[in-house]
Amino acid sequence: MDDILITDALIVTCDGNHSIIENGVMAVNNGKITALERFNTSAAKKLTAKKIIGANGNIVMPGLINMHCHAADSLFRGLVENLPLEEWLGRVWIAEKAILTPETTYLGSVLGLAENLLGGSTTVMDMFWYPDETVKAAKDLGMRISTGGIFFDLPGIGGRSHENYVSEAHNFFKSHSSDDSVIPAILPHGSYTVSPQNLSEAKSIADEYGILFCTHAAETQAEQNDINKRYDNSVIRHLDKCKLLGKTSVLAHCVHLDETEISLLAQSETNVVLNPMSNLKLGSGIAPVKEMHRAGINLTLGTDGAISGNDLDMWLAMRLTCGLAKGLNMEADALTAEQVLHMATISGAKALGKSDSLGSLEIGKNADFILLDINNFHSVPLFDPITHLVFGAGRSDVTDVFVSGKHVVENKKISGLDVEKIHAEVRQLAPSIKASLE
Ligand SMILES: [Zn+2]
Asked: 100: domain range?
């Protein structure tokens, strides 16, 4: 007997064929998907489970994978506005330095990751100052997290030096490498805040453990000018010269690229995370998504932190990515809804090196899935579920979330989370956050 059986579901699998199972059933045992069938098959009729959940015709699909976030930055949402990235970062770092401790980082991480989880993201790749606290928050919420040691050359939070970051990166890997819910990574901030030597050292730690290397890259024109001035090269060429591109590299943004750089990313099989809302709001630009997609780059989606994009909404990221590619190129088929849905699911899993266990609903994979309500005015009639997911649905439609078969969000409520307490703690901290910039 299986643990869970979901019945009467419109299953959007996000597999290689974009398969959709109408009137479907899905069985879960020991955290894995064990069956996916149409309800009226003889195999489906034999299925039984300890817990049977009727989906009432609603959509069941894989949990979204947010590939770029700074969850704890939710503490600073709306604090610094209307400035370009470089001046904006200068202000953000003042506030972060005044406020962030391991304790406040945990609080901010719960805030940001809870928003992610309620919106249907079951896995988040997060870059932040105290990654152990991010992991603690993710585990308390029951979600999957990819994070790890950060690198930053300027005096950072907690007065830590490069040597501290090196030992923290090693320690992070050692403490979390055997945990199935943690995907360890090494996350230097960027090539304008970390020297080539320190970036190379970060990459050698990633390679030593066979884990991901993730950094911000080619986000703004000012960053290009800065790197050009310092190293007489563009950002992607600079990263290539430092031997930082490749299958296990994840570059956030990639807004400012020329044809050669797109080829470099494609040939090296480097993964790219698009963060359209953050790029628009900071006036950074619009990434050449159509060109990158046609070059065969593995494109994934992220929200960035709530301090730049102001929310952690992967549905908005999907809609913007698809709409901007069509509008910018004046081509209605520049990018399809299927392609964008894959960016938010299976392509994220591929970038994390987990396409065998995450990112789609297929037998043998982890049971990380969400339920979406389609019994509402914006979903009736529903001719094409995938177009609906990208252009019509939103995070408020997500009712239930499962991670490894565990029911972590039930009817829009996170199991075991004291929401009032979290809100009260954040509100108590708010005056000092505001005062940090006065
Ligand atoms: Zn970022």
From this structure: 64-351
